[in-house]
Each structure stands twice: as C-alpha cells, then as structure tokens.
Write a structure and sequence with these properties.
alpha/beta, 5-stranded parallel beta sheet, 7 helices, 5 strands, 11% strand
Length: 206
C-alpha cells in the first residue's frame, strides 16, 4: 500500500519536477531554414545545456517568415502551452526585409516582452541589422529599435544575431539571407553571451 501511495504521489508531483523551459521565439534564422534542424543554433543550444547537465528544457517555437505582428498574435497560445521561464525573442528580420515601419516593430516587440513578463518569464531580446541597400535612414532607425527597447524595458540584449558572419558571403546559403550550418555555432555564441547570466540565475517557477 505504501509503495502504491508513493507511486501515485510521484505521478501527481511530476509536473512540478519538470525542467524550466527556455523558449526560442523567432523566424527562419532560428528555425534552421535550409539546413538540418539538428544543425541549427537552437539545437546546438539544447546540446550545450545537456552537456553541462543544466536543468533547462529548450523549446523552439520559431516560424519561418514570421514578422513581429505574427509573433505577437500567436504568443499568448505559445506561452500558455509551454509556460517558459525564459523567452529568447529573435524577431524583426522579416519586418525589415518587408520595409515595415520600425515604430510598428518596436511596438510589437514591446508588447511581446510585456506579455511574457506578465506570464512570469524573463526575456532576452536579440537584435538584428539590415544590409546598407535598404537605405541609411531606414537601417539606422531599424537597428536602433533593439537597444532602445532593451533600455526602456530593462531587458538583457544580444546586440546582433549575425555578428561576425553578416559580412561573410561564404557563411550564407545561396539566397544570401540564411546562414549555413557552418555559421550556426557563431549564432549560438552571439546569443550565449547574454543568455548565460540568465541561466545562472535560479529558474523561476511557471
């Protein structure tokens, strides 16, 4: 009888022992577009954490082609489903490629960060930049959104996801937009520098 009671208690307590979730919420740059999914930087993050026996579960909710408006629309359901402790917010590139207003992107990113915070998650904002052919004014305004929001909302910031590879055509696929598998470790390192201190903190409950 005691054994049965213990088993039932463990089953009922199971969810409380689940590893806290790191939710990666991005677009094709985080969805391993054009390369094997297990070669993408999010999969590399998962393996790095597993190798360090860190108590975290990585969930990749990135969708190729996603804009900040689309991400904002689907975020409530994603948060409800996964209840993350940390959200890595890696959106904005498609807003820039479509020439959408930086002010609109900023509002969507702020709304997503606020929503995640209200659900008990800490947010890491990952910045993006555009090539100069989009015009100096637009590229400057676009790039400025990320550090400005990080200061305003007091969010940790990884300044530029593609730092160190943006000027290297050999590290991009034929479309010139999506990094190759060889570039993924650098993407992870660009995120890791800002993420590692967050992981070192005691995970908050859902």
């Amino acid at each position: 009888m005691r054994i049965l009671f213990a088993c039932l208690w463990l089953l009922s307590a199971g969810p409380a022992w689940a590893a806290p979730v790191v939710l990666v919420y991005g677009d094709s740059l985080s969805a391993a577009y054009g390369i094997p999914r297990d070669a993408g930087w999010v999969a590399l993050l998962e393996r790095r954490l597993a190798g360090r026996q860190a108590p975290w579960q990585v969930v990749n909710a990135s969708v190729s082609g996603e804009t900040t408006a689309g991400g904002h629309a689907r975020l409530p359901a994603v948060l409800e489903r996964h209840r993350p402790a940390i959200v890595i917010l890696v959106l904005g590139a498609n807003d820039g490629l479509r020439g959408l207003p930086p002010s609109q992107m900023a509002a969507n990113l702020k709304a997503m960060a606020t929503l995640a915070g209200q659900r008990g998650a800490r947010v890491l904002l990952v910045g993006m930049q555009l090539p100069p052919n989009y015009g100096s004014t637009y590229t400057r305004e676009f790039q400025a959104v990320f550090p400005a929001l990080a200061r305003q909302a007091r969010l940790p910031l990884a300044p530029f996801l593609l730092d160190g590879i943006a000027a290297r055509p050999d590290l991009f696929q034929a479309d010139g937009l999506h990094p190759t598998a060889a570039a993924q470790p650098r993407l992870l390192d660009n995120v890791w520098r800002a993420l590692a201190p967050m992981l070192a903190e005691r995970p908050a409950g859902p």
